[in-house]
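Reminder to self: tokens first, then the designed residues, so the page reads top to bottom the way the pipeline ran.
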């Protein structure tokens, strides 16, 4: 699985998807104001509300989700690098212990 897809899936654990909430908020707002709109303008006004909703998601929720996914992907990459470095340190510590044993044997010979 790609880092981005994994980051997207993991991001839902930090924050559930917000687009459905934005859709719901705009839908609720439309229900509150549609009676104030002249019947002949209702379709045009509803389209304008829908366009505004999509713009809010594009400049808000989608950008924030993308940033969260990138941060999670970066975190996962850093954790992988950290684990690699820990293994390298462990290998080097083992090598040092082995060399110390060899040195002790050589000194006692």
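Designed residues (109 positions):
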């Amino acid at each position: 699985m790609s880092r981005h897809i994994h980051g997207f899936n993991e991001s839902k654990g930090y924050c559930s998807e917000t687009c459905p909430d934005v859709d719901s908020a705009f839908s609720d707002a439309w229900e509150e104001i549609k009676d104030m709109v002249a019947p002949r303008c209702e379709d045009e006004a509803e389209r304008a509300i829908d366009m505004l909703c999509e713009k809010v998601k594009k400049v808000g929720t989608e950008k924030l989700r993308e940033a969260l996914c990138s941060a999670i992907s970066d975190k996962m990459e850093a954790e992988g690098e950290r684990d690699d470095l820990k293994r390298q340190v462990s290998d080097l510590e083992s090598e040092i212990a082995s060399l110390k044993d060899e040195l002790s044997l050589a000194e006692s010979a």
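The longest helix spans residues 42-108.
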